[in-house]
């Protein structure tokens, strides 16, 4: 990990660079008051091991070199095809001289009161804890962008560390993607969904490019047959960016950041929070040749080795399966979230937690500093626990196995879950959001409908699958009785979501077309000026369009097992 050199060549004590900002009332570390120093690598005792089928309606981003597209001649008609998502270039980092690192909050305030030298010590210590991985153009270069945010939390099953060899092969010094959680945060920050991805889920791993320990970039081919999800990291040199691309291909979501923890993190973090409360409906004993776990029925508080044993245990569970273990892990995570919320008024404990968490943490470079992680945490900390949903991606037993060991995506339920996440539909009851949606729905979709034969509409492809406009035209004309639909090829520019633009006197046509195509109210874009009798509406198909005949509007709910972060185990 790169660290910033903060020497004292000019006689300036770094502790004296903490200054009070009279406008905000906060202390800030002002590095621009000292001469700019060259960046030099921070020495580390031992690096962490981690530093070493497309979703519907979108094309997964590819890493590595890509040939520039050849522009079509100006006179040629625009072909109908889906958009290719380009590489997102990471912004150039500001120089160290222009960085201003601000600390706020109770714990950091106490540190500052205790003395600026102590504050500098803690910042330097936490900064030195964090490992980063360069994942190239995968992910976001913004800490907390506008709109929905997706963070991938990867549990690395590397066995290095005291006592961890009993959980499996210690010779694997890189590890694999074990317990993996996709943390989806809604655009309005009112709710979040934490979705577990089973390690034994059989999927296709895409091509990716990964930085190797020697600094070189390695192009790694994807799988040619369905492969276990846990091989998306650590196998053939794959890095967390490869896991992010795999999740993007599975879900159709863009993953912004990753955080990776290992077994040691479970031990240190559970101890730092003072133990994590769990409650069992029946005792668990996994002693001989197992994890060593021996827990009674009812409540227990776990930390250190016991906490890790609890998360790794399968014995004593209903089917002794990975899915049963995931359910227990979700309850453990929910309990830890509640425990962390309870430490906000204890600055000293918060520092212990920050030290423990960052010491076992590997992240992408975009969030690779204490100040950036603090910005991310503050932006997400206001979500009410009752609006945080925990669930597992819907799966079923692998039909290709005589005795199922692995699982595959549920072909009915999984697409519905992904559609809800893609369209930022909450799994919880967020009253204001639901009321706004219902009001909009009533205003735009209530009223008379035209006959299908009376609909005039131009269909354009603005980011949908290749051939979407032509397929939709054929479906409307042959299946739905809309003869006056026309394929206009590619839209002048891609759109985020499918939209239908129409004049006020075409509202009855718009409502009928919305019924036929399953368009949500948000897709309807009424104009202000009436259209001529023969003027068509404009339907632009976006990345949320899957295929002709499949409703564009996401489901409002899906029948999957889920829980809330405020629900305690055993119902206590």
Describe the structure.
The protein is of the alpha+beta class. It is 25% helix and 20% strand. The chain contains twelve helices and 28 strands. The strands form nine sheets. An eight-stranded mixed beta sheet has the order 6-19-14-7-8-9-20-28, sandwiched between helices. Strands 24-23-27-25-26 form a five-stranded mixed beta sheet, with helices on one face. Helix 1 (106-113) crosses helix 7. The longest helix has 20 residues, at 322-341. The model is unreliable at 1-18, 31-115 and 159-169 (pLDDT under 50).
Strand order within the widest sheet? 6-19-14-7-8-9-20-28
What portion of the residues fall into strands of 2 or more residues?
Answer: 15-25%
What is the general shape? elongated
Rg from C-alpha positions? 26 Å
| Helix-and-strand structural type | alpha+beta
Total DSSP helices: 12
